[in-house]
C-alpha cells in the first residue's frame, strides 16, 4: 500500500485534517487528477482514508495510526539529511 507512489504523500497531507480534492491535489504538487482519484480509491478501499459527506477526505483511525507509525521514519530522515549536509563539502562552504 505505502510502496505505491503518492500514497504516503496523501497520508502526510491529510495528517492535520480533512481536505477537498482540489486542495489535496494542490498540496501534492499538482499531481494529475486521474492519479489522485486512483490513489484515493486505493486508500479508501484499504480504510486508510474516508470521504466525508461534504466530499472532503480525511484519515480514518487506521490512517491516523499509520501516520503515527511512520513518525519515527520522519525523524530519522531529518537526522539523515543533516548528516548528509555535514558530509557535503559544498554545503559546508
How would you describe the overall organization of this protein?
The chain is mainly α and 93 residues long. It is built from five helices and two strands; from the N terminus they run H-H-H-E-E-H-H. A two-stranded antiparallel sheet has the order 1-2. Strand 1 and strand 2 form a beta hairpin. The longest helix has 27 residues. It is elongated, with a radius of gyration of 16 Å. The N and C termini lie far apart (41 Å).
Q: What are its keywords?
A:
about 90 residues, mainly alpha, two-stranded antiparallel sheet, 5 helices
The structural class is: mainly alpha
Low-pLDDT parts are none
Helices, by number, come to 5
Write down the overall mean pLDDT.
Answer: 90
Strand content: 5-15%
Strand order of the largest sheet: 1-2
Morphology: elongated
Helicity, as a percent range: 55-70%
Main β sheet profile: 2 strands, antiparallel
N to C succession of SSEs: HHHEEHH
Query: How many strands in all?
Result: 2
Distance, first to last CA: 41 Å
Task: Please tell me how large the radius of gyration is.
Answer: 16 Å
Amino acid at each position: 500500500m505505502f510502496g505505491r507512489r503518492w500514497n504516503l504523500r496523501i497520508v502526510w497531507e491529510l495528517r492535520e485534517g480533512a481536505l477537498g480534492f482540489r486542495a489535496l491535489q494542490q498540496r501534492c504538487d499538482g499531481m494529475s487528477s486521474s492519479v489522485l482519484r486512483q490513489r484515493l480509491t486505493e486508500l479508501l478501499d484499504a480504510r486508510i482514508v474516508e470521504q466525508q459527506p461534504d466530499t472532503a477526505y480525511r484519515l480514518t483511525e487506521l490512517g491516523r495510526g499509520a501516520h503515527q507509525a511512520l513518525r519515527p521514519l520522519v525523524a530519522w530522515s531529518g537526522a539523515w539529511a543533516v548528516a548528509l549536509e555535514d558530509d557535503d563539502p559544498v554545503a559546508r562552504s
